Amino acid sequence: MPRFDDATVSSGPDTGSDRSVNGPTGRGTASRRRSGQIAVETTQDVSGLRPEVVTEVHRVILGWYRRQGRDLPWRHTRDPYAILVAETMLQQTQVDRVRPKWHAFLALFPTLADLAAAPRAEVIRAWAGLGYNRRAVGLHEIARTVTERGDATLPSTIDGLRALKGIGPYTAGAIACFAFGLPEPILDTNVRRVLDRIFHVSIPSGVNADRHGWAIARSVLPVAEDVYDWNQALMDLGATVCVARAPRCGQCPVAAHCVAFMSQPPVPMLPGFGDDLVPLSIAESVKEPAALVAETREAYRPTPVKRSPERFEGSRRWFRGRAVAALRALPTGGSIAVN
C-alpha cells in the first residue's frame, strides 16, 4: 500500500524518442541556491567511490538521457504546484495513466489557490481513475495549508517543503530540484536500484540503509547545472532499462562501469540474440545472495504480511470502491442515505 508522505514513484513502459527532453525549461535556468538540505546525514563512508569513475558515469548517463530520455509533460514546466501534482499522481501509478489525468487535473485546478478553494468532494471526483484517494486528500490539505498562511506558492527549500504534512524526502527533493533548480538528490526505488547496481557501496555496520542510500545519492551528484538532468536520467534508466526483475543490460549505456554487471560471468552470445541477455540474469542472482543487486528487497521493504487469498468481488475493497463511486456521482452538496 503506498503512502502519501513518500511513496515510490513507479514509471510504466513509456519509451522516449531521440530528442532532448529539456523542453522550454532548459537546464540551469533557475537559481542554484542550496538551502535546507534533506535531513539525512552524509557523513557515512562513501570513500570507496572513485571520482574518475563517477565522472565517467555522469558523462555516459547524461549523454544517454539527452538523446533518449522520455519526453514527459511535467518536464516542460518549473511550476512547483504542477510538479507536486505530477509527483503525487506518479506514486505507484504508471506514467501512461498519469499523463491525461495530470492535464485534466490542472485544467480544473490551475493553481494552488484554485485547488485549496475547491470542495473536497470535487477534488476526489477529479482523482477518479488513479486510485488511492488519500493522495488526493493529502494534496488538497497541502494546498489549504499553504494558502491559509498567505502564500501563493510552495516553499522553495527542503526544510520548508518537509514541514508540510504529506511531503516526504523524495517529493521534497523532486520539487526542490525540478521546480526551484536546487542541486538536490532524489531517491526512489528506481534510483536506489540504479545507484546500488552501478556503484555497490557497502552499507557500514550499524548504518540505516535508507540514510546510507541518501548519502550515496548526494555524494554522486554532478555539477549543479547537470543535477536536473541527472535525477531525471536515473529515473528513466531505472524505469526502462535497469528494471528490477529482468534488467536490459545489453541496452544499458553504463554497463561497462556497472559493478553488478561486471561482477557476473558472461553468457554465450547466440546469433540473433543479445540485446536483453544478462550475465546470469542479474535479477536472478539470489542463488549467491549478491549484495550487488539492489532488489534483494529486504533492505528496502517491510516483510509482507501473509494474508489468506481474498476474492475481490464482495471484498471490503470491492464495497469501498462502489461506495466511493456512488459518492463521486453525487452533485456538489448532494447526500446519500445510509441504512
Structural overview:
This protein is mainly α. It has 2 domains: 48-71 and 183-301, Helix-hairpin-Helix base-excision DNA repair enzymes (C-terminal) (Endonuclease Iii, domain 2), CATH 1.10.1670; 79-180, Endonuclease III, domain 1, CATH 1.10.340.30. Helix content is 41%, strand content 0%. It has 13 helices and no strands. It has helices spanning 51-68, 80-89, 95-108, 112-117, 120-126, 134-148, 158-162, 169-178, 189-199, 209-219, 227-240, 259-262, 316-329. The longest helix is centred in the first third of the chain and has 18 residues, at 51-68. The chain is globular. The chain starts with 50 loop residues before the first helix and ends in a 10-residue tail after the last helix. The model is unreliable at 1-45 and 269-303 (pLDDT under 50).
Ordered list of secondary-structure elements with their pairings:
Layout (H helix, E strand, L loop, with lengths): L50 H18 L11 H10 L5 H14 L3 H6 L2 H7 L7 H15 L9 H5 L6 H10 L10 H11 L9 H11 L7 H14 L18 H4 L53 H14 L10
Poorly predicted spans: 1-45, 269-303
- N-C termini distance: 30 Å
Largest sheet: none
Shape: globular
Arithmetic mean pLDDT:
77
Radius of gyration: 21 Å
Helix content: 40-55%
Query: Can you tell me the CATH architecture of the largest domain?
Result: Orthogonal Bundle
Q: What is the H/E order? A: HHHHHHHHHHHHH
Q: What structural category do the secondary elements indicate?
A: mainly alpha
The CATH class of the largest domain, by name, is Mainly Alpha
Structural domain count: 2
Q: Beta fraction of the residues?
A: under 5%
And the CATH topology of the largest domain? Endonuclease Iii, domain 2
Using DSSP, what is the number of strands?
0
According to CATH, the homologous superfamily of the largest domain is Helix-hairpin-Helix base-excision DNA repair enzymes (C-terminal)
Helix count from the secondary structure assignment? 13
